[in-house]
From TrEMBL:
Protein name as annotated: 11838_t:CDS:1
Top-level taxon: Eukaryota
Limits of the Serine aminopeptidase S33 domain: 27-135
Gene3D superfamilies in the cross-refs: alpha/beta hydrolase
Pfam families, A to Z: Hydrolase_4
Organism: Dentiscutata erythropus
PANTHER family: ALPHA_BETA-HYDROLASES SUPERFAMILY PROTEIN, RE40534P-RELATED
Cited SUPFAM superfamilies: alpha/beta-Hydrolases
Length: 260
C-alpha cells in the first residue's frame, strides 16, 4: 500500500489536503472517497482503519477548517462540506479517470447522503453512522447542558477538547437545525445504491436514523441496512466487522455498476 499526499485547490481561496492509497491486487480500478466526521480529520477512526485496510483504492481528505485543509469550519456547515466533496470528486475523476464511490462516517456520512441526493452521479454510496434528526430541538440541551447559559448570553461557546477547541455559534446551530435528511428520497434508485452500517449501541447518533434511511431509500437492492451488534459510534471493538460489511457490499455490487 502506498500513501501519496493530495492537494486540491478550491474556488474559495483555500486548498483541501488528502491522501491517496493505492492497493495491490485491488478487486476494481474504482476509488473510494472517505469522509470524516465532526471535529475529525482523515486520520480519525474508523476512517483511517478503512483507508488502510480496505482492499479497494482509497482517497481520504480533510474537510475545510479541519486537519491540514484551509478555510474555516462550523457545526452546521454540511452543505459547504458537500461542495468540498464535489471538488475532490472532480479532481480524482480528472486526474485518475476512474469510477468513484463515496463513503462517510458520522457527519461525513450525512455529507455523502446529501451529495447523493443532489447530484446522483456516484453509483455506490456508504453511510456509516449518519445522524438523521438534525432539527431535534433537544440537541444542545442533551450534548451541551452546561453551555446553555453562555450560548444565550454571548451567542457562542467554546467546545473544548479534541485536536483543537471548537467555537459553536448560535447561528451555526440554527443552520444545522435546518438540515433535512429526508432529502435522501431524491436519490435516484436506477442510478445509485446505498449501504448503511450502524452500531446497535451508538451513543452519538441514534440507530433510529438508520431505520429511517432504510425506509426512505430502500428496499434492497437500492438500500441495504447492516446493524452491528454492540458497536458504538466509532466501532471501537468491531472495526473488522465494519470493514467486512463495507468490503462485501462493494464486491457484491460491482457487477451492477459495471453493467449500468
Amino acid at each position: 500500500m502506498n500513501e501519496s499526499p493530495l492537494k486540491v485547490d478550491t474556488d474559495k481561496g483555500f486548498a483541501l489536503h488528502g491522501s491517496l492509497y493505492l492497493k495491490s491486487n485491488a478487486p476494481s480500478d474504482a476509488v473510494i472517497i472517505l469522509c470524516h466526521g465532526l471535529r475529525g480529520t482523515r486520520y480519525a477512526q474508523p476512517v483511517r482503519y478503512i483507508a488502510e485496510n480496505l482492499k479497494y483504492h482509497v482517497v481520504t481528505f480533510d474537510f475545510q477548517g479541519n486537519g491540514e485543509s484551509g478555510g474555516s469550519t462550523a457545526i452546521g456547515n454540511l452543505y459547504d462540506e458537500v461542495e468540498n466533496l464535489r471538488c475532490i470528486i472532480s479532481y480524482v475523476r480528472s486526474t485518475l479517470n476512474r469510477e468513484i464511490f463515496i463513503c462517510g462516517h458520522s457527519k461525513g456520512a450525512a455529507v455523502v447522503l446529501l451529495y447523493a441526493s443532489i447530484y446522483n452521479d456516484v453509483p455506490l454510496v456508504i453511510n456509516i453512522s449518519a445522524r438523521y434528526d438534525y432539527p431535534n430541538p433537544d440537541y444542545v440541551k442533551k450534548v451541551f447542558p452546561d453551555k446553555l447559559e453562555k450560548l444565550e448570553k454571548d451567542g457562542f461557546f467554546v467546545w473544548e477538547g479534541g485536536s483543537n477547541d471548537y467555537i459553536v455559534r448560535k447561528e451555526d446551530l440554527e443552520t444545522r437545525s435546518k438540515v433535512d435528511m429526508s432529502c435522501v428520497k431524491n436519490i435516484i434508485k436506477e442510478k445509485v445504491r446505498v449501504l448503511t452500517v450502524h452500531g446497535s449501541k451508538d451513543e452519538i447518533c441514534s440507530i433510529d436514523g438508520a431505520y429511517t434511511y432504510d425506509k426512505l431509500i430502500g428496499p434492497e437492492p437500492h438500500h441495504k441496512l447492516i446493524v452491528i451488534e454492540d458497536a458504538d459510534h466509532v466501532f471501537r471493538k468491531q472495526q473488522d466487522e465494519l470493514l467486512k460489511a463495507v468490503e462485501s457490499w462493494l464486491f457484491e455490487n460491482q457487477s451492477w455498476y459495471l453493467a449500468k
